[in-house]
Amino acid sequence: MVEDRITDGRRIGQLLASEVTGRESGVLGDMAVVDADPDADPTDDGTFAYRVALAGDPIAETYVHPDRLRIELLTGVERGAAAAERADLRVRPKAVEPPRTLVFVESGAEVKSAVDVVAVANERESD
Fold first, then answer.
1. pLDDT at position 22, please?
2. Adjacent-strand bridge partners of 68
3. Per-residue pLDDT, 26
4. CATH number reported for the structural domain that contains residue 35 in this entry
5. What string of DSSP letters covers 24-84?
6. Using CA atoms, how far apart are residues 53 and 33, in angstroms rounded to an integer?
7. Rounded mean pLDDT, 21-43
8. Is residue 1 domain-resident?
9. Residue 76: CA atoms inside 13 Å, Cβ hemisphere, count?
10. Contact 48, 37 (CB under 8 A)
């Protein structure tokens, strides 16, 4: 039996939050979901759901839409954009100061790739 594809923005956001908090190794082990709004209702423009923090510093924000989740990378925007493209996720720059990268997660199947994109965006550069 084939399960339905998860395309509800709120549910995708919940899955992403679980992935972020459930991994214990590497950069993901130091990430946390913060400032969560459990009552965030999806809107066409996107409603703030939560931030992802690394060692207490915000590195991404998430917004729920009726049919997707939008991640706004606050750090590592170029590395994140390249990683999202490699993962075949829809991605585009956001022209604000400082710049951000938008990553669109359109199904539950894309969640693990999206979490990896956030991790790659925030990996420490080797000396």
1. 83
2. 65
3. 64
4. 3.90.1150.20
5. -SGGGGGEEEES--TTPPP-TT-EEEEEEEETTEEEEEEEEETTEEEEEE-SSHHHHHHHH
6. 6
7. 84
8. no
9. 22
10. yes
